[in-house]
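Researcher: Next entry in the queue.
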Amino acid sequence: MAERVTPVMERALSRRRLLKSAGALVISFSLAACSRGEKQTAPPAGSPAAKAPASPTPASAVVATPTPWIPTNAVRSAIDDKSLDGWLAIAPDGTVTVYCGKVELGTGVRTALAQIVAEELSVPFERVEMVMGDTAATPDQGYTAGSKTLQVAGPVLQRAAAQAYALLLDLAAERLGAPKDQLVAEDGVIRVAGNDAAKVSYGELIGGKQFQQALREDVTVKPADQHRVVGQSIPRVDLPGKITGKPSYVQDLRLPGMLHGRVIRPAAIGARLLEVDESSVKDIPTLVKVVRNGNFLGVVAEREEDAIKAAKQLKATWEQVENLPAMEALRDFILSQPIAQDKEVARQGDVEAALAGAAVRLEATYQVPYQMHGSIGPSCAVADVRDGEATVYSSTQGVYPLRGALAQLLGLPEEKVRVIHVEGAGCYGHNGFDDVAADAALLSQAVGKPVRVQWMRHDEHGWEPKGPAMVIQVSGGLDGQGNVVAWDYAVWTPTHSTRPGKQAGNLLAGQLVDPPAPPAKNSNTGGDRNANHNYAFPNNRIIAHWLASSPLRQSALRSLGAFANVNAVEGFMDELAAAAKIDPVAFRLKYLTDPRAIDVLKAAAEKAGWESRPSPNPANGSGDVVRGRGVAYAQYEGEYAYVAAVAEVEVNRQSGEIRVPRVVVAHDCGIIVNPDGLKNQIEGNVIQGVSRMLKERVTFDRARVTSLDWSSYPILTFPEVPEVEIVLIDRPDQSPLGAGEPAISPVGASIANAFFDATGVRLREIPFTPDRVKAALA
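Model: Structure for this entry, 778 residues:
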């Protein structure tokens, strides 16, 4: 095992102390990143670029460019993902343009994917330009989700670059009159070994021309021991503009003649719009139109402040309905709901017989609430719908699925709709970005001009799809020697994905228009993620009870069901270890057989300075503040990245407050493309994991969501950010696995186990709020 621990940046001031001392947003960055010039390069001459614009928005429009990479000039007449030309092109100046259907969500994949291409082509990293997420330019690679970008897109681009490199060697051998085994490539130039005068650049060989070859599977890629770019902490290319205040987000985008829109939501979930008094906004000077389509109600104005004023001032009468269950009875409501499908996820042995014969039997019920994505910046989109065509700028995670849904909503052929990804506020999962794109498109279609819609905070908190509430029941048995003889696990969950999926019925606007879009058909997915474990138990049963519906609109939130399932699995493992009076790390190691799983667990324990003993902590007395440590492990989805986490907590018995001063994470996601980028992802998982565990819960009454601001839906603050220590286990001989989601689940579970270690009391319902803590300790 090759183990590498790389500091993010040598600093005299730690990241945590810097954040604690700040009163506003602080972003750490490398000055080296800012010194590199940014350029926007058009696709090379000779690439299949269309001469006519794909939409009524001209490429020459004066745009406050959100990033240097908005591909308004990257339209291609044909996108063939079976062809090498569908993925990359080389310009006469040697610039490499890569076309990728995945998108940058603030995770650093624009940088990491460019590293992979630069490595295989032996070109400087700065010479690789990425065009990402544009239905007029990039292949359809579905959603950027599930920590799958490097795992799925990385190998495709690696093969494409390796194939292009082999073709370039063939061309160079013919041009230079030398056998290929005497050729050396460096910095985009191929030369004959020992003869520096005999050389030719990539641009001279093929610049502006097409490769005209099918994309092959059987290509030879560069061995890991020859990597010079992959494995390096190259500064992220998207950060300089964001740090220096350049327009970088879809929120910054401005088009000529653009108007501003706002949408007025129903007074209650499921309410019908009965009446609108347009005269109530006639005094607003730049108001252009009140748009009503069924229960969809919006306003368009020339100035944004007038759109906001009109949305507040417009008098609308809504049906009074109460369709939601009582929040305090959510667990019973979930357990009583109709089951759409019972799925046996795993079964080994005879669980009932083993439980019946167990010397010790334990049972526990775990619960997670509805939680939000909590994007700091509200969702935004710009749409230009006129003359039977549409161009939509959106931070969607899937430009092609959104295109299909918008085409259905607008009544246009798919080929007449172009969706261009532009970065937005950070989000892991399905927040409001797709919905706001539909809002903007409907309003633009109604007025025949470009319309920008930015949600307000109450829109985002109230109407974004939520991470689903779940209930999990676990039973387990030990023999007289403290060995696990049975494990019985059941989870109640709705589907965790209602993404657009080319279905307008999955868009909020699609559900409100008249007639409503056809009801979406969503498969049961995500809720059983990590319900099964990696422990070798002789008798094991895992069942997922898929609920037919959800009272609140739900969809994917970072890690989907894994956050709840790992919390339950690892929490119950800790309960069994405590019952057996065995150290929690040693207890887990007894049942792990995968060497990589064992490695991450041992690495986290070693880095944390783990003291081997059973929980709870016998040293804790009756003082007001008690301390504990907890451990958790998971392999994401049971087959991808391996993560182990150790959390240290301090619990104030009087106030009920939990503080997490330190979290240690060991992480194995195969070959590491960019160590610093990987650490960024792990740190983000830790922060969000702590926040979701201690603070986050959607509140609602019988009619609507009531947590509409940061006071009613608090998230972790800068002073509360723990010290994060990371062990990266690099495996250059293994394929890359994603890192955007895996660490969040064991981080959350380790906090729960640390709370038990500190107090001797088990909390099983998230979040661990002060009131809940005090009630449990009482």
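Model: Confidence is low (pLDDT under 50) at residues 1-72.
Researcher: Noted, moving on.
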